[in-house]
Fold Propionate--CoA ligase.
Amino acid sequence: MVKPVNYQSDGTYQNLYEESIRNPKGFWARQANLIDWHKPFDKVLDDSKPPFAAWYVGGETNLCHNAVDRHLAEQGDKPALIFVSTEVDQERVYTFKQLHEEVQIAAAMLQKMGVQKGDRVLIYMPMIPEATFAMLACARIGAIHSVVFGGFASHSLASRIEDAQPKVIVSADAGSRGGKAVPYKPLLDEAIERSSYKPASVLMVNRGLVPFEAVTGRDQDYAKLHAELANAKVPVTWLKATDSSYILYTSGTTGKPKGVQRDVGGYAVALAASMKHIFMGEKGKTFFATSDIGWVVGHSYIVYGPLIAGMATVMYEGLPIRPDAGIWWKIVQDYQVSVLFSAPTAVRVLKKQDPAYLSKYDLSSLKALFLAGEPLDETTSDWISGAIGKPIVDNYWQTETGWPILAVQRGIEAMPGKLGSPGVPVFGFNVNVLDEDTAQPCKPNEKGVVAIEGPLPPGCMQTVWGDDERFVKTYWSSFKTRQVYSTFDWGIRDEDGYFFILGRTDDVINVAGHRLGTREIEESISSHPAVAEVAVVGVADSVKGQVAVGFAILKSSNVLDAAQAKTLEAEIMKVVDGQLGAVARPARVYFVNVLPKTRSGKLLRRSIQAVCEGRDPGDMTTIDDPTALDQIKGAMTPA
Ligand code: AMP
């Protein structure tokens, strides 16, 4: 076993950043000392086949070993996983030793069901400890997990089953939201039914929330197997640094979600480096990310990042305002949380509550509140920083990168932030704002596309699962003149080097920090028999950042009265709920006779969006039917 050496000499942000860009191999070789290696790597980076980048070639390590086993000697009896559920009123603390035991039992269960290195395991679960055990168990034995957000419904789930082809699915009877059970099993059964690929087994955690029928021969009971395998010892399988650790599906501009595929070694190092330099992580302290394991923040900063850093991690099942708006701060106080990580939407939800909750608890353990996932507006940032009196650190990244691209990296140096800006480039990311047409860097304060020069640093996606061509075509082909990774975000960089993000260049929208493809929602709405055509756009919302709004043309030319329109709108929403999940449900669906399109038939989504937000729709010389925008305006204006 190669042990980590003492890591020091970080210098200033400027030094560290410049070194990471000038000499990435040297820089990342040094960062690699932050984790344990079973076998040292021969080559820091193989970028002989751009835009693919293989980090730590020849090295062997394991994410589960780095997250759990390596802390046993020093911190075995210290908290590792803190589970708090205000939904089912439970709190449980697992020490590193207990986590180690649980993960081995879960790994033994998977092995018993035939799971081997490289096999996929789909995890469709609420925020319960067994979900973390399952993820770490996969990492331990080299199975590739694919966690699907519990808020997704059968259609979304089916497409992911079809694509990932998991040998086993781990699930539970139900989640819970606002004190009400949300059944998972019927959606799962329906998804398996829909998918042409069938998993061999389903491992069911029975929380006793909703009765369900087990499918004989396929469904296994977690508690029963747990009892059988209670003393299981499953050694870590050493994996190549370049092996795949997981697939996480994310929305893009087509209806088919992309499987973001991540490696083992690069991801472990990137997370360890980010915990140290960005998140000010300290061994033995507590990290609390309020996200969900179904999203990338959950992967990186509920499960792997904090544990790799030797921190306890809080897994919270519940709403930020239940039983009251003090719950997060109570958790901070009770578990001495040192770093809190959330999303602007959640803060905007809190802002509507009594501010007294924010001063009710002792927050002295808290060093900073990190916010990511969507633009952080100045009002929200000002309000929360005033209310809790702690630094607020915006950070910008994507499912694809797995960790922040832009941030004020307070673990290196307490650089000042700028309101409305997620900060400066993170070490390793050669970020630029490029002219959309020429791919040349924009001048300060000039709007362009936020792009990253290859090779991407460790931790970023290796490829699109099963589709290298799609990886290259989607992310690296935006500019004709050269191969650069596009984030699909508009942005500017000011004269001091701070970036500002100005929204997506594509048809992806961001609802409450959740990324949704408008095409997926359109496909779902179009499956309603009454709908001929539909356009879905993201419209600014004061709490959720954006909401989806649909404009549908019906097959029949009969004019609907208000009551009929309402009924049909409700029916359409039900279809979306059933197929994609409530998370993708549009806020409104309006009915129109014509949609704004160019003469060549391309939907003018940005013009629709502008009209919805009361902005100028821009140059309309290419529009086929100029009355179409009036219809959009008319539909949104109550009679
Ligand atoms: P996801 O892959 O779901 O994390 O979504 C990534 C997208 O969310 C980015 O491409 C941005 O459009 C947006 N985003 C994430 N973090 C921020 C941030 N701090 N500021 C502005 N937009 C953000």
About this structure: The longest strand covers residues 531-541. The two ends are 72 Å apart (CA to CA). The chain has three domains: 12-34+397-502, 62-318, 512-636.
